[in-house]
Write a structure and sequence with these properties.
The complex is a heterodimer of chains A (about 270) and B (about 130).
Chain A (H helix, E strand, L loop, with lengths): L2 H9 L1 H14 L11 H21 L1 H18 L3 H20 L9 H39 L5 E4 L2 E7 L4 H17 L4 E8 L5 H16 L3 E5 L3 H10 L8 E2 L2 H11 L10
Parallel strand pairs in A: 2-3, 3-4, 4-5
Antiparallel strand pairs in A: 1-2
Chain B lengths: L3 E6 L2 H18 L3 H22 L2 E10 L2 E10 L7 H4 L13 H8 L2 E6 L5 E8 L2
Antiparallel strand pairs in B: 1-2, 2-3, 3-5, 4-5
Helix pairs in contact in B: 1-2, 2-4
Classes of the chains: A alpha/beta (about 270), B alpha+beta (about 130).
Organism (chain B): Evansella alkalicola
InterPro entries (chain B): HATPase_C_sf, HATPase_dom
Pfam family, one (chain B): HATPase_c_2
Chain lengths: ~270, ~130
């Protein structure tokens, strides 16, 4: 930033702060800022404008770290991005208005405006980047978390494993299910695998297709698949859709599935008489 | 007041969003759990077809009130490649994508009314209605 502009802004510091604070107070009542107490709002405003003036004084490079820290704190406290952008917009308006009234001819020149806009854009970029970075990070973490709760194969008895499926099955998860299923069957030496779809909200043709393919693959590695946890409404939609599951042993509940899996592996659970 | 929702299908997440919107409206209209599952599954099929064949399109879900009858209408619109032979896609087991080929005939059976309108290279529009009994 040029020295003339810096000095002009610093010269009118008090007026700018005063007007800016009044403008910001006006939109406290709107949006999602209402839940914030007056005191906290005023403190945050003061800090915001201090940071801005610090940047005017020392140049953006020196204050860069502080700006980022300020944005990080706002993100953590859940302040909307809207607060930052509006704060900066008001700052531009108030500053340009105040300075252009000062009577110095340079302060009305296009060059002055451009210089000032460039400087402000730099700050906008830093703060908005910080915000969007944190959103991207959140989305990424949630995707990872979703993947982690995807489709484990659990050995429940010798030769019998269960794969509980929960949530929406998309192409990516379907692939994962297939891989986990085959790896698990070989690793645990399973003879019977129960696929439990109690937690799958919608079984459409694609989901059915993936399950059929998975069970076919399981058959190829020498094990048997039983589909369990078919809720009554899912059973009806499967029939309506005309999906052929005749080749496929199915059971209504996991309990019944385990009973028939034990039968298939020629075992049973008996009560011991004392 | 009639409610309608638009969902843009541009990725697999759009399918989930359309489905959830459909289930919510079906519940509000007063459909039972079996019909809710039917409607959601039909939306899922139509939305997936959009995603699979046309890459992008819209699903519109609206409440119907007609001569004392209430229902829900799903409209799927895309500007994709269109369907070459509408009669064949309504046959069970016909597929061009290696799927089960049960999608469109399945939707027809899941719903009460079904209209398909498609022109080669000019997109597809499918509407399906389920009435509340």
């Amino acid at each position: 930033m040029k020295t003339e502009i810096r000095e002009a802004i610093l010269q009118h510091q008090e007026t700018i702060i005063e007007h800016w604070t009044t403008e910001l107070d006006k939109f406290r009542t709107e949006d999602n800022l209402q839940s914030i107490t007056k005191k906290v709002y005023e403190n945050t405003n003061r800090e915001f404008i201090d940071k801005l003036f610090l940047t005017v004084q020392n140049g953006q490079e020196d204050v860069h770290q502080e700006l980022i820290q300020y944005a990080e704190r706002l993100i953590q406290l859940g302040w909307p991005l809207n607060y930052i952008t509006r704060g900066l917009q008001e700052f531009r308006k108030v500053t340009v208005e105040t300075i252009s009234k000062s009577g110095v001819s340079y302060n009305n020149s296009i060059e002055f405006f451009q210089e000032f806009e460039n400087w402000l854009d730099g700050i906008v970029n830093v703060l908005v980047n910080e915000y969007s970075g944190s959103w991207e990070n959140t989305v990424f973490l949630q995707k990872m978390a979703l993947k982690e709760l995807s489709a484990p194969l659990i050995p429940v008895f010798d030769k019998i494993s269960v794969m509980p499926l929960i949530g929406t099955i998309d192409t990516e998860r379907a692939k994962l299910i297939m891989e986990n299923l085959l790896d698990g069957v070989i690793e645990h030496r399973s003879e019977v695998v129960l696929i439990d779809i109690t937690g799958v909200p919608v079984v459409d043709t694609m989901v059915a297709h993936h399950i059929i393919q998975a069970s076919e693959a399981v058959r190829l590695v020498g094990a048997k698949c039983i589909l369990v946890g078919i809720r009554p409404e899912i059973a009806q939609t499967i029939v309506n859709l005309g999906i052929d599951l005749r080749k496929f042993p199915t059971k209504s509940t996991l309990k019944k599935g385990i009973e028939s899996a034990l039968e298939l592996t020629k075992r049973e659970i008996v009560q011991i008489d004392e | 007041m009639q409610v309608h929702t638009h969902v843009e299908i541009t990725s697999e997440w759009g399918i989930v969003a359309a489905r959830q919107a459909g289930r919510k409206l079906a519940r509000e209209v007063g459909f039972g759990s079996v019909d809710q599952a039917r409607i959601t599954t039909a939306i899922s099929e139509l939305a997936r077809n959009i995603y699979l064949y046309a890459n992008k399109g819209q699903i519109k879900i609206e409440e119907l009130a007609d001569a004392g009858k209430r229902g829900i209408k799903i409209t799927a619109v895309d500007n994709g490649p269109g369907i070459k032979d509408v009669r064949r896609v309504m046959e069970d087991g016909f597929t061009t994508s290696g799927g089960l080929g049960a999608g469109l005939p399945g939707v027809k059976r899941l719903m009460d009314e079904f209209i398909i309108d498609s022109e080669l290279n000019n997109g597809t529009k499918i509407s399906a209605i389920k009435w509340l009994r």
